[in-house]
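All the exercises in this workshop are built on plain-text protein records. Sequence and backbone structure share a record, each on its own labelled line. The structure tokens are whole numbers drawn from a learned vocabulary of backbone shapes. The record below serves as our worked example for the rest of this section.
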Amino acid sequence: MKEKKIITGVTVFVVLLYVGVLIGWHMYAPRENLTIQAPGADNRPEGLVRAANDVVIGEYFMRYEVDFSSELTGKWNSFRGENSNNIVQTVDAITIPEEDYPVLWSVETGEGHAAPVIYNGRAYFLDYNEQLSSDALRCFSLETGEELWRRWYRVPIKRNHGFSRTVPYVSDDYIITIGPEGHVMCCDPVTGDLKWTLDMQKEFTTEVPFWYTGQCPYVDNNVLILAPAGEEVLLAGVDCSTGEIIWTTPNTLDYTMSHSSVMPMTLSGKKTYVYIGVGGVCGVSAEESDKGTLLWNTGRWQPTVVAPSPLQLSSNQIFLVAGYGNGGALLRVDRAGSGWTAAIVDQYKPNAGLASEQQTPILYNNMIISIIPKDGGGQRGRLVYYSPSDLHTPVWSSSSDERFGLGPYLMINNKLFLFNENGELYVYDVQPRSMTLLKKQVIIENGADAWGPLAYADGMLIVRDAHVVKCIKII
């Protein structure tokens, strides 16, 4: 009984003590006459605090491997490869083994569709780190997948079908990227050292498309060709060595930026940059005598969303295609003395002929290869083969159980490598008027949104879905 009274007394004392401490803590003012600290009152040096949208392109760098070297010399240097046609001609014969192609390495990424380039044993791609809210150019060993270095910068954006979308351009002297918000970065391809930067929104008042920048950089004779489609500038040429803007094309057409990329073409003997913007299609001179001059345009082709790039079919014909019900169109461009004419000579919905929603078709041996979009009627999702002389009737199409969604494809010699959007690789033998399926293999289990273009060099094919990049050995 005595022990019970002692325990009760101790308990009451402890409770009263804690109550007293809590009351005292709430009533005590540690300091009187507090003053408000306004921004800048701490005398912090100007520039150390930045707004979230005040991007410093390329500000951070990390090197992981110093002594890397490679004997490889293969190159896939840009979007659609060196000749901008998505076709590789190699002396190595493409054999189709019965066993699966081996996966050499795999790298997890931020959600996105930005595809790699390959140069002298290195693979590069633009990534987005959601935890750091940063665009990141990452460099890897092509043979091992070991990360060599990365350069990144903070640019907070929200996920919208992923983040990064573009393919870099790489050469001996530089690698150039365009980020989701139109930030252009040029680095040394070996060391990762920052050379120069350009913000298209600030420089050209560019309005970035809803699904972010899809335009891939194109370089012509050491000049980066951009289509900022801003308030005053439609196209611009930037010196790759210095970042200096050396010519511009006035935006008298009032185009805004699309997801499509600038394509080089020679039309009626004239070197031309062709661009599909939101508002129409145009051709700009690529020749030294009048570089940057607007040659022709048409407003009869005006998709509000366009991802595929224009495809040259002949010296005066360009195939245009876009998703979201726009279908396809044939543009004819003719030189008339010192002037030009541009006219849409055929236009149709996606269920009435050759179409594509995301990937740019391939012109191979005077035949067009594409995948019909989901609104293409009975042909939806199928791989198709069309003659440029008839854009309404397929010469050949894949079987009803071979449908590929928005997946990418490229030609290596006479073999078509196609990666469906679920992570499965298909290989077709391409004949003059048909294709034969030779092989299929799951590369990414339960793949999701495998839309990023393929890249090939030195017998290695790089594929990706929204979350992982993988390298497989095919030769």
Q: What stands out?
A: The first strand starts at residue 60 and ends at 63. Helices lie at 2-27, 200-204. Residues 28-50 have pLDDT under 50 and may be disordered.
